[in-house]
Amino acid sequence: MSDLFQEIARIILIGDASAKCQATHALAANLSNFTLNHHPQALEILQPGYPTRLQLVAPRELKRRGIQGQDSRNTLMHAIAHIEFNAINLALDAAYRFREQPIEYYQDWIQIADDEARHFGLVRDYLNQHDCDYGDYKAHNGLWEMAVDTQHDVVARMALVPRVLEARGLDVTPGIIEKFQRVNDQAAVDILEVIYNDEIGHVLLGSQWFFYQCKQRDLEPRVTFTDMVERYLHGQLRGPFNIAARLQAGFDEIEMAALDSRFG
Description:
Distance between the termini: 50 Å
CATH class: Mainly Alpha
CATH architecture: Up-down Bundle
Shape: globular
Order of helices and strands: EHHEHHHHHHHH
Number of helices: 10
Largest sheet: 2 strands, parallel
């Protein structure tokens, strides 16, 4: 039987988008064929595999456009493809990075990676149908930078990746869907609705594992989450918040009232 962690690291470092997705789907489908060898410890991964033609730049170098023309819609969908591609790497790294976790932890994060690969495939198909592909536009590396920043602490990772970065998708996606509805791009709407509904479940799983890790260390979750936001994001959390979706995804009313009061 193959070592699970070695296979996950191999997939993270794959640059070809199709090969990464295929390997992720195969891992999820054949997870029982792998063994958990918690030693040696995880290696630092400063950069996951990306397509060679993808140019990573600072966020300020990315131009914002409307979505009236197809090229502008491609630009926005390419940004979403990049988020989903990074989400594959982030979910896999959550499984690879942190050892001595319950088996359900690894099962959950590999299943999330499988979902993210499916999402990426949907968005990439859209791009391909409009004479575009992943790598045709510039992108930024902020999502993976958070993975590197939190690689030493599973509590920080569970707080800041699913409950900040991914939860932000719950806040903004309904507005993006409305934009595509206004230009009658039903194909994009259908894809984004699939992603949005699945991401509620992903953030919920992240919240549940955050609560689990807090309990293991005897930490109060609300205080710990605020502490992580202060420590890693310097207290900057972007609102407004999709309170209804976040409540479905593991936030509670007290927490959301505090976040909305401070950052909304």
